Amino acid sequence: MNLGEHPMSTLVTGAGGQLGRRVLTELRRRGLPAVGASRDGEVRLDWTDTASWKPALEGVESLFVTVPMAGGLSERAGAFLQQAAEAGVGTAVLTTAMGAEDGPPDSEQRVLESRVRDLFDRWTIVRPNWLDQDFTEGLFARLARSRNGRLELPLPKRAAVSFVDAADVAYTVVAALTRDEHHEREYTLTGPAPITFREVVKQTKGTESPVWRYKKLDEAGFYFRATNMGWSERYVDTLNERFRAIANGRAAVVTEDVRRALGRDPVPFAKFVREAVI
Questions:
Q1: Over 60: is that where the pLDDT of 2 sits?
Q2: Rounded to whole angstroms, how far apart are CA atoms 220 and 242?
Q3: What is the pLDDT of residues 70-94, one digit of tens each?
Q4: Closest CA to 141 of 207, 76, 187, 220
Q5: Is the pTM for the entire model greater than 0.90?
């Protein structure tokens, strides 16, 4: 699809991912012109191929940006944001992750957040906690499928996380793309309450989720298992940093930002489990 066919449209990066797919679907459900971009999507966008950037930005007025975690792509993505601003893109919404603002100043996510603030007059930063959907289509599901339903992490089963539903994140992104009151806002999105991995397994066992059991590994054991699955050392290091945040209780924090953004309570994990379809 040529973006020129849809002047003044929204470009959704990572359109095949958990968030990008939902953002694109919701924009189109509302009848808004939007196109999905990825390396093999309807519009080709490859962070490592600068020749793909200009064509992807043709006719774009607003932009949703999500960048693979620990992909070493922050410099490229930052240059893309610069090109987008120079091309006349007026609105940018960026997703990073809960706690990104507390990372080192040179961390990939903090660098991108700074670029968005500097380059765009209308910007919003969305920092979701771990997603409910990580248990059905994301990281935890992939790990469990590799171990016959047993999720193995370097965390005690009583470690708690205020998991947030991907739909709540997508609706917040769409609100930020379409309504002025969300400009220059930063949202940290969580579910309504923390839930332990032990409680998660109780709720997902016997459902369509592949997560039926849980086992604590030490960090070295997780590192060995994850790299054997083909995951890069950099990615595994980043995951272990996020797991340490869970172990320290920082991922159990509950915010009011879903309510601030959407005017309603976030989706509870139990409701997600009841309605989940893989």
A1: no
A2: 15
A3: 667 888 999 999 999 999 999 999 9
A4: 207
A5: yes
pLDDT for 30-68, tens place per residue?
999 999 999 988 899 999 999 999 999 999 999 999 987
In this structure, what CATH number is given to the domain that contains residue 217?
Answer: 3.90.25.10
How buried is residue 90: exposed, middle or buried, by Cβ count under 10 Å (0-12/13-18/19+)?
middle
Contact 67, 78 (CB under 8 A): no
Look-up of token digits 């953002």 = 23
Residues 122 and 142 in one domain: no
Looking at the structure, do residues 98 and 147 belong to the same domain, yes or no? no
- Domain containing 221 equals 129-165+189-278
Contacts of 149 (CB under 8 A, 6+ apart): 210, 211, 212, 213
Q: Which of 189, 231, 191, 193 shows the shortest CA–CA distance to 96?
A: 189
Q: Which residues contact 48 (CB under 8 A, 6 or more apart)?
A: 73, 76
* Confidence bin at 4 (pLDDT 50/70/90): very low
Claim to verify: residue 75 and residue 16 sit in the same structural domain: yes
